[in-house]
């Protein structure tokens, strides 16, 4: 009988550890992820211009599909909901199309028109290093 209670306790402890990692990511982490996805969209826009391709919605969707993002969880079950995945895709595509960071999705979705004047060819992101 003692072996059964020790085994049952072990199983319960294992489940607690396994489920402890579940849950949604903090809001700040999800917003940071959106910023990163938006930057990927802007970087892909630069690649499109390098290939002499206009950054259309279709071209940006191709770039998003190639990225194969894995957004952090946004529900208590530790999964990314379809709504959250759609917001991530929207942030990428809008940033790719406009060249602007879009960390917070618009209520009109991907088809919303955001007037952004394009006056110069975009510059790829470069990490700044302190000057000596």
TrEMBL record:
Descriptive protein name: Lipoprotein
| Species assigned in the record | Micromonospora carbonacea
Q: Which PROSITE patterns does this chain map to? A: PROKAR_LIPOPROTEIN
């Amino acid at each position: 009988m003692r072996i059964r209670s020790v085994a049952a306790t072990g199983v319960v402890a294992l489940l607690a550890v396994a489920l402890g990692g579940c849950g949604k990511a903090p809001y700040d982490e999800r917003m940071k992820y959106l910023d990163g996805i938006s930057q990927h969209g802007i970087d892909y826009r630069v690649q499109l211009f390098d290939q002499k391709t206009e950054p259309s919605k279709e071209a940006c969707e191709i770039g998003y599909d190639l990225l194969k993002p894995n957004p952090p969880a946004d529900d208590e079950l530790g999964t990314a909901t379809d709504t959250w995945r759609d917001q991530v895709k929207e942030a990428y595509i809008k940033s790719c199309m406009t060249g602007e960071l879009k960390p917070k999705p618009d209520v009109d979705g991907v088809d919303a028109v955001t007037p952004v004047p394009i006056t110069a060819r975009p510059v790829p992101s470069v990490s700044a290093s302190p000057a000596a």
